[in-house]
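Researcher: Can you fold this with zinc ion in place?
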Amino acid sequence: MKTQIISTLILLISTTLLSQQNSLELNPLPSSIEYAAQTIQKPQLIEKIKYLSSDQLKGRKTGTAENKKARNYIVDFFIEKDLDVTLQPFQFERDNKTHKAVNIITIIEGTENPENFIAVTAHFDHVGIDKSVERDSIYNGADDNASGTSALLLMAKYFKLNPPKNSFIFIALDAEEMGLQGAKYFVESNKRNIVLNINMDMISRNKNNEIYICGTRFTPSLKSYFEAIPVESIPIKVSLGHDGLDGKDSWVNSSDHAPFHKSGIPFLYFGVEDHPDYHKPTDEFSRIDPDFYFNVVNFITHTLADIDSKIGY
Ligand SMILES: [Zn+2]
């Protein structure tokens, strides 16, 4: 019976989706997040964030050989997992200079609504080296954003093995630290019907075990979706906010979800509160919280799978 109600709702929702582009209607029934199933392998996740934030990648600044090394690592992983890879080179002007950068894209076609895309994003660049800092000059960017990048890799692997109903496009974005350039270029050149952007930027540590989701303010169906999740079913604290109404810093324009938002695409940005190591050489692997990080990635993966099962019908 419950299933029947859901199907009816979904049918209604799909009609609404067709008539209202750039809006997202979700089944508002409580989600069933089964937390026990571990979809993501923790050792792989940790190995990836450790490599991407290691000193040998020298802070992965856009345009450097080490940024290219990070790019190759991502491409090799996609190829190894039998995922298609498209490189999206672009250039932009900044400080009277032309910079070159490259986004990395892989697509998993949906089994039922291949024309609808959920775009999962994380930037893989960081700020590089600051030679004026004497002792440790490498900005490793473990939390910002080797964390989101490694999560994106394992999520792509997960959905390759568990094909979604809608299509997924995973984009490891370049040049976020130079003004969200990769995301701007991707959105400007995009011709696909993107129904939702999930952006991850800084998801691996928080002293209060808390992850924020910014963006539900603009998409009420997503707000009720998260509010309906039983708190006790998740081993982390999930808070909605930082979207301009709660007196906290607004994160609406703070990362790669901003260009999606500006073009009318619903978004969810997952991130932690700023910490003392934010944009410092001390944002290192040794300071991430592996358990928290793993729980967050598992939670986002489940959320994605659940949302995918509920849209477009
Ligand atoms: Zn970042």
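Model: Folded with zinc ion in place. Residues 123, 144-145, 176, 201-202, 255 surround zinc ion (CB under 6 Å).
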